[in-house]
Amino acid sequence: MKRLFWLVLSIIFIVPVFEIWADFSDSKDSGAYRSQYENTMFGRRFYNIEPVKHHNAWDMMKWGLTGKRKKWPEKIDIESGDKPSAHVETGIRYTVVNHATVLIQVNGINILTDPIWSTRASMLSWIGPKRVVEPGINFDDLPPIDIVLISHNHYDHMDIPTLARLAKRDNPIIITGLGNQRVLWSYGIDNVKELDWWQEFNRDNIDICFAPARHFSRRGMADYNLSLWGSFIIKTPSGVIYFLGDSGYGGFIKEIRRRFGPIDLAFIAIGAYEPSWMMETVHLTPEEAMQVHKDLESRLSVAIHFGTFQLTDEGIDEPVERLDKVISQNSGALGKFVVPKFGKSVDVNKKE
């Protein structure tokens, strides 16, 4: 069954030869960190400012057949967190559900990042990465959601069943990168706002900016990089929040710090980095996550994207163990970097 999954995945990663030339080219204006694209027969194809390694179907097959995949438990039981408050009128409260799903409650607005309550992170309901840990919050216990942030279109970040449930229940505005609206519309999810890098959306007294990331997009055989990936800056009266759902390390982090100043609260991915020859330019290691924390001059950084779905080869505990080690080695660094308890709500004091 697992080998079948890798075969299906490798077929999806086949890219026609005439398109490869456009992949991961250097930016013509890298200093501005603007999104870059080429027009193809399939539409506008985006690419990274800082090059990443290109991998084809043969690399996927090699990984699937020769990778040293650590065994994860079939299931880990956790106790669901308390039901969150309906709203938080002052200050910031966050709850890491797990994976890259975070409930952010700030100044009366409820924001949910990359929500996934599905059993599998896959294009198919019967095969693909299966959830090992249940969400830290029951879906029915979620407060009314005002805004959903989607960093990119991979199945573990843009989960259509969850988004459809949210749309039916709360009809939140979904903010995402260019090119994702057509997919969401096709499922009847129509309250969508697309942004290019550095474009902003305002809701009451909160400004949300779609910022760069170093990653890629794909959901099928013919849509490679046809939608834009990114990260989010959330500017509020209670502080500046940063969400980095999936990305490799790059100079755009320092550019974000330059534009927005020191970050008050950052959510930084720490998992899905092995094998390094496949993942090193599109996912962070725990050590690189610490560097992101430093580059942002973050007051508080919170680890995400670990211990939920086995997407890559590292063991379930390795990202946290490596992060704990690097935290201990950087005890004098500015700000804290913490590993969250799934489902536990945490209040962040406003900066004095």
H/E series: HEEHEEEEHEHEEEEEHEHHEHEE
Mean pLDDT: 89
User: What is the radius of gyration?
Assistant: 19 Å
Q: Number of folding domains?
A: 1
Distance between the termini: 55 Å
What form results from the Cα inertia axes? Answer: globular
Q: How many H/I helices?
A: 8
Quick one: how many beta strands?
16
Kindly state the percentage of residues in helix: 10-25%
Description:
The protein has one domain: Metallo-beta-lactamase, Chain A. Helices cover 21% and strands 22% of the residues. It contains 8 helices and 16 strands. The strands form 3 sheets. Strands 8-7-6-5-4-3-16 form a 7-stranded mixed β-sheet. A 7-stranded mixed β-sheet has the order 9-10-11-12-13-14-15, covered by helices on one side. A two-stranded antiparallel sheet has the order 1-2. β1 and β2 form a beta hairpin. α1 packs antiparallel against α2. It is globular and about 50 Å long.
